[in-house]
Amino acid sequence: MKVAVGGTFSPIHDGHIRLLKTALSKGTHIVIGLTSDKMASDKKGKIENFEKRKNKLKSKLEEIKTNTKWDIVKINSPIGVTLDERFDAIVVTPETIHNAEKINKKRKENGLEELKIIKVDLVLAEDGKPISSTRIRQNEIDKHGNLVKKERRP
């Protein structure tokens, strides 16, 4: 089964690991759509450039022991390559399921089969709120969801 998954992956955190492991466990070939620099610039905070994010993502994927084939492709929109290639499923979070629904609508309009949507629950931080790259960049939590201790100054 060919599975699509996408994101900015900056910085990579435990929620991303769950997303990637789920995708890798569901398919025989995973295509990871990594947002372009232009697309990533819409995010809050400083995002590393595409090549740095791609290299870090490759390293993380190599750490995850799997026999599943994977590729990383640059995407310029939430739809990415899901209309150009034959996919069977897409892995999403509750925050991105609307993108999968848009993709399926477009696929149907183009005479393609809809993708099976595999929803992965968000990983919660120590405070019960979802781990997110934005929260990490804002120095609220670390990549594992631990609260960052703020030093108080007199």
UniProtKB/TrEMBL annotation:
<comment type="similarity">
    <text>Belongs to the eukaryotic CoaD family.</text>
</comment>
<dbReference type="GO" id="GO:0015937">
    <property type="term" value="P:coenzyme A biosynthetic process"/>
</dbReference>
<keyword id="KW-0548">Nucleotidyltransferase</keyword>
<keyword id="KW-0963">Cytoplasm</keyword>
<keyword id="KW-0547">Nucleotide-binding</keyword>
<feature type="domain" description="Cytidyltransferase-like">
    <location>
        <begin position="5"/>
        <end position="138"/>
    </location>
</feature>
<comment type="function">
    <text>Reversibly transfers an adenylyl group from ATP to 4'-phosphopantetheine, yielding dephospho-CoA (dPCoA) and pyrophosphate.</text>
</comment>
<protein>
    <recommendedName>
        <fullName>Phosphopantetheine adenylyltransferase</fullName>
        <ecNumber>2.7.7.3</ecNumber>
    </recommendedName>
</protein>
<dbReference type="GO" id="GO:0005524">
    <property type="term" value="F:ATP binding"/>
</dbReference>
<keyword id="KW-0067">ATP-binding</keyword>
<feature type="coiled-coil region">
    <location>
        <begin position="40"/>
        <end position="67"/>
    </location>
</feature>
<feature type="region of interest" description="Disordered">
    <location>
        <begin position="135"/>
        <end position="154"/>
    </location>
</feature>
<dbReference type="Pfam" id="PF01467">
    <property type="entry name" value="CTP_transf_like"/>
</dbReference>
<dbReference type="GO" id="GO:0005737">
    <property type="term" value="C:cytoplasm"/>
</dbReference>
<feature type="compositionally biased region" description="Basic and acidic residues">
    <location>
        <begin position="137"/>
        <end position="154"/>
    </location>
</feature>
<dbReference type="InterPro" id="IPR014729">
    <property type="entry name" value="Rossmann-like_a/b/a_fold"/>
</dbReference>
<dbReference type="InterPro" id="IPR023540">
    <property type="entry name" value="PPAT_arch"/>
</dbReference>
<keyword id="KW-0808">Transferase</keyword>
<keyword id="KW-0173">Coenzyme A biosynthesis</keyword>
<dbReference type="GO" id="GO:0004595">
    <property type="term" value="F:pantetheine-phosphate adenylyltransferase activity"/>
</dbReference>
<dbReference type="InterPro" id="IPR004821">
    <property type="entry name" value="Cyt_trans-like"/>
</dbReference>
<keyword id="KW-0175">Coiled coil</keyword>
<dbReference type="InterPro" id="IPR050385">
    <property type="entry name" value="Archaeal_FAD_synthase"/>
</dbReference>
<comment type="pathway">
    <text>Cofactor biosynthesis; coenzyme A biosynthesis.</text>
</comment>
